[in-house]
From TrEMBL, chain A:
Belongs to the complex I subunit 4L family. One of its GO terms (molecular function) is quinone binding. It catalyses: a quinone + NADH + 5 H(+)(in) = a quinol + NAD(+) + 4 H(+)(out). One of its GO terms (cellular component) is plasma membrane. One of its GO terms (biological process) is ATP synthesis coupled electron transport. The keyword Glycoprotein does not apply. It comes from Actinocatenispora rupis. It holds the Pfam family Oxidored_q2. NDH-1 shuttles electrons from NADH, via FMN and iron-sulfur (Fe-S) centers, to quinones in the respiratory chain. The immediate electron acceptor for the enzyme in this species is believed to be a menaquinone. Couples the redox reaction to proton translocation (for every two electrons transferred, four hydrogen ions are translocated across the cytoplasmic membrane), and thus conserves the redox energy in a proton gradient. This is NADH-quinone oxidoreductase subunit K. Residues 103-124 have a biased composition (Basic and acidic residues). NDH-1 is composed of 14 different subunits. Subunits NuoA, H, J, K, L, M, N constitute the membrane sector of the complex. The chain crosses the membrane at residues 6-24, 36-55, 61-82.
TrEMBL record, chain B:
It is found in: Cell membrane; Membrane. It comes from Actinocatenispora rupis. It is a multi-pass membrane protein. It catalyses: a quinone + NADH + 5 H(+)(in) = a quinol + NAD(+) + 4 H(+)(out). GO terms for molecular function: NADH dehydrogenase (quinone) (non-electrogenic) activity; NADH dehydrogenase (ubiquinone) activity; quinone binding. One of its GO terms (cellular component) is plasma membrane. The chain crosses the membrane at residues 6-27, 63-85, 97-115. Keywords: Cell membrane, Membrane, NAD, Quinone, Translocase, Transmembrane, Transmembrane helix, Transport. Belongs to the complex I subunit 3 family. The lineage of its organism: Bacteria, Bacillati, Actinomycetota, Actinomycetes, Micromonosporales. Its EC number is 7.1.1.-. InterPro entries: NAD(P)H_OxRDtase_bac/plastid (IPR023043), NADH_UbQ/plastoQ_OxRdtase_su3 (IPR000440), NDAH_ubi_oxred_su3_sf (IPR038430). This is NADH-quinone oxidoreductase subunit A. NDH-1 is composed of 14 different subunits. Subunits NuoA, H, J, K, L, M, N constitute the membrane sector of the complex.
Automatic annotation (TrEMBL), chain C:
Residues 161-456 form the NADH:quinone oxidoreductase/Mrp antiporter transmembrane domain. This is NADH-quinone oxidoreductase subunit N. It comes from Actinocatenispora rupis. It is an enzyme of class 7 (translocase). The keyword Ion transport does not apply. NDH-1 shuttles electrons from NADH, via FMN and iron-sulfur (Fe-S) centers, to quinones in the respiratory chain. The immediate electron acceptor for the enzyme in this species is believed to be a menaquinone. Couples the redox reaction to proton translocation (for every two electrons transferred, four hydrogen ions are translocated across the cytoplasmic membrane), and thus conserves the redox energy in a proton gradient. The gene is nuoN_1. It catalyses: a quinone + NADH + 5 H(+)(in) = a quinol + NAD(+) + 4 H(+)(out).
Length: 124, 123, 520
């Protein structure tokens, strides 16, 4: 019998992730929504693996790759968001692009929010 | 409950039993215990010590680097498991061993870089 | 032991010679990381530039060697069919590297701005005391070189990937360094960081769609190899719906990287915010890589189902050309103008791709190279027009440059004419190649829209030219920096190739023609 339930759950998870990305405005929550989407993919891979006669367990191995890439993505993403937070003191994405859309981006260098003293701003 | 959904029946029964057991324990507790409300009972439980400070504590952002390094290594080690299953087979042997050594060496390169950049220093 | 597991798993044979270019790039990137970790600060810059250029030249030499031996004629699959070494793969790898070398020259430039265009610590607020302090103590950023090597290696892996999983891994390998490189601008740091956040979030979103498409196709075909998908597509008894959903999801991920409408919204902001040399790298190399992936997926995995999906992608191509051209007209910032022009150019390449026959492949390959060189030179020139805030990218600031800097204005005019598709430039020969391929493939509608949009697109380019020559310079007009040796070299290469391929296109077109055969 076709494994319907896992597929439906995976599709729902993916949908929840897409909804989160479209609705949320906090960069970290966006990242979490994207993770949800990737986990939906993992569930699909593992499920599809059970009904496939081919290279044995290939779907499960694909899942490992997706997990690892998701971790790498989160690492880079958190670093980028963290740097952004230090300049802006906010991780709301609503303001992203506000500086680009003005016709005179020369003011963009001015710190828009008071940046807190950086405890480990020492050069590495 | 046969066929495809039958395999989920065990899981469902386990869930139901869990809920019933939980509910029964709390109901029994409610029936048997004395009822003496006290404001002290509503405070946060901190291992018997009086709670100190607010409930909003932020972790230092510099832990992020350690957490991240840990996550990377923990996650990358996932590739070791499928490798461990096949590498003793005939025909795999040395080649697979060398390939895994290269893989681990690249990981170590990352750790080395973090160490040289002073990320691992705990100040 | 588990009976399924005990089934035959054999060690895949890896032809190390055939994938040597990728290994060289990634290996040298690791060397670059080591250099960054252990060398004293003063030595890092020369060593990194050297490592970076040596890696790319060595990789290019290996590719040429492979192409001259019979890999182009007798394509091979290696590493358990995960990698294809064939004509288009080698051509695209070579294109990525050639363009990468020129972009590296731009990245390595340090005389235009003291310490180069990249900041050592991106989190420090620009203009603050800490910023002056860090500029004094550690003037330069050298991590950009290993990052760009990783990105280029990933792109080479991407264009030769022969299954979807390898393709996804390669996609991440080249995207993740690019996200970081976007955030490293020395000037206008907030803009740069915003660009990185935007690029990252949208990029991760689109790659999630890509991998969902992979899962769909895995469920459909039982394998992620392009060949198996192609076989499953023509065998009866399988639901095509799953395949088309999967293809649509894959296309979202790929068209995002290629900056096609409606997946283009990130492009202007990211191109504007990223440091200009990195923008040049993205506009040239990333485009080559993205279209390499698109070509391989469409021509290897989905060739037989083309009648079903070609109209949809055709609509996207038309939208890309028309909307890119219309929005380019309204721009007032040179980097944003070039960004919208790169969107419209993605539409032209897509037109060539949709020819779905051999000269569709070769003309797309040719167009990617011609566009890459021209856009590299254009962004290189943008780095030279400066005022006290860094690059003066607003178009009104470019007024009267023709009098102040005739050489720069002359070269820029030539590049603009090439973008506009005037004969004797590579822009003309490239457009001619893709449009005639598309006509041969029966895509007349696409060609009509392509020609109309390129007429429209000529307007913003010529407006810049008019602005430079026919308007009075403002009192506080930006100065034109004297390019250092590296930028001069990059500009010269870009402009000369633009001219050369305009007057003598067959030199590259013949190579592209002989390379245009995918291994199935």
């Amino acid at each position: 019998m076709h494994p319907v339930i896992p597929y439906v759950v995976a599709a729902l998870l993916f949908g929840v992730g897409v909804y989160g990305v479209l609705v949320r405005r906090n960069a970290v929550l966006l990242l979490m929504s994207i993770e949800l989407m990737l986990n939906a993919v993992n569930l699909m891979f593992v499920t599809a693996d059970t009904s496939i006669v081919g290279v044995p367990r290939s779907g499960q191995v694909f899942t490992l790759f997706v997990i690892v890439l998701a971790a790498a993505e989160v690492g880079v993403g958190l670093a980028v968001i963290l740097r952004f937070f230090r300049l802006r003191a906010s991780v709301e994405t609503d303001g992203v692009g506000a500086a680009t859309e003005t016709d005179a981006p020369r003011e963009a260098d001015a710190p828009r929010a008071a940046v807190r003293p950086d405890p480990d701003g020492e050069a590495r | 409950m046969s066929g495809y959904l039958g395999s989920y029946a065990t899981l469902g029964i386990l869930l139901v039993v869990g809920v019933v057991l939980f509910g029964a324990a709390f109901a029994g507790n409610r029936l048997l215990r004395p009822h003496r409300p006290d404001p002290g009972k509503l405070t946060t439980y901190e291992s018997g010590v009086d709670p100190v400070g607010g409930d909003w504590a932020q972790a230092e952002i510099r832990y992020y680097v350690f957490a991240y390094l840990y996550v990377l290594f923990a996650v990358e080690s996932v590739f070791l498991f499928p490798w461990a299953l096949v590498f003793a087979r005939p025909g795999f042997g040395t080649t697979t061993l060398v390939e895994m050594a290269v893989f681990v060496a690249v990981l170590l390169l990352g750790l080395l870089y973090a160490w040289r950049k002073g990320v691992l220093r705990w100040t | 032991m588990n009976p399924v597991l005990a089934a035959d798993i054999t060690l895949p044979h890896i032809n190390y010679g055939a994938i040597a270019p990728i290994l060289i790039l990634l290996g040298m990137a690791c060397v670059g990381v080591l250099a960054e970790a252990f060398l004293p600060r003063t030595l890092r810059y020369p060593v990194q530039v050297l490592v970076s250029l040596v890696a790319q030249v060595a990789g290019l030499a290996t590719i040429i060697g492979l192409a001259l031996s019979n890999y182009a004629k007798k394509p091979t699959l290696t590493a358990g069919d995960a990698l294809a070494v064939d004509g288009p793969g080698l051509f695209l790898q070579g294109a990525v590297l050639v363009l990468g070398i020129v972009a590296t020259l731009l990245i390595a430039e340090r005389s235009v701005e003291r310490g180069g265009a990249f900041v050592a610590q991106a989190a420090v607020t620009a203009g603050s005391e800490a910023d002056a302090e860090q500029a004094r103590r550690q003037p330069s950023q050298t991590e950009i070189f290993p990052l760009s090597l990783f990105a280029l290696g990933g792109m080479m892996l991407f264009v030769s990937a022969n299954d979807l999983l390898t393709m996804f891994v390669a996609l991440e390998v080249f995207s993740l360094p690019l996200y970081l490189m976007c955030a490293l601008a020395r000037r206008r740091r907030l803009l740069s960081q915003e660009a990185a956040v935007k690029y990252f979030l949208l990029g991760a979103f689109s790659s999630a769609f890509f991998v969902y498409g992979i899962a769909m196709l895995y469920g459909f075909a039982g394998s992620v190899k392009f060949h198996d998908i192609a076989v499953a597509a023509i065998s009866s008894g399988k639901s095509d719906l799953l395949m088309f959903i999967g293809l649509a999801m894959l296309a979202i991920g790929l068209l995002f990287k290629a900056a096609a409408v409606p997946f283009h919204v990130w492009t202007p902001d990211v191109y504007q915010g990223a440091p200009t040399p990195v923008t040049a790298l993205m506009a040239s190399c990333t485009k080559v890589a993205a279209f390499g992936g698109i070509l391989r997926i469409f021509y290897v995995a989905f060739l037989d189902s083309r009648w079903d999906w070609r109209p949809v992608i055709g609509v996207i191509a038309v939208l890309t050309m028309v909307i890119g051209a219309i929005l380019a007209v309204t721009q007032t910032d040179i980097k944003r103008l070039l960004a919208y022009s790169s969107i419209a150019n993605a539409g032209y390449v897509l037109t060539g791709v949709l020819a779905m026959q051999k000269d569709g492949i070769s003309s797309s390959l040719f167009y990617l190279v011609t566009y890459g060189f021209t856009v590299l030179a254009a962004f290189g020139l943008v780095t030279l027009v400066r005022d006290q805030d860094g690059e003066a990218t607003h178009l009104s600031r470019w007024a009267g440059l023709g009098r102040k800097a005739p050489v720069l204005a002359g070269v820029f005019t030539f590049l603009m004419l090439s973008f506009a598709g005037i004969p004797l430039t590579s822009g003309f020969t490239g457009k001619f190649a893709v449009f005639s391929a598309a006509l041969g493939g029966g895509q007349t509608t696409l060609v009509i829209f392509g020609v109309l949009s390129s007429v429209l697109l000529a307007f913003p380019y010529l407006r810049v030219v008019v602005l430079m020559y026919l308007q009075e310079p403002a009192a506080d007009a930006p100065t034109v920096a004297v390019p250092g040796a590296l930028t001069s070299a990059a500009l010269a290469i870009g402009a000369i190739v633009t001219l050369l391929l305009g007057v003598w296109p067959s030199v590259l077109l013949d190579v592209a023609n002989s390379a245009a055969q995918f291994v199935g």
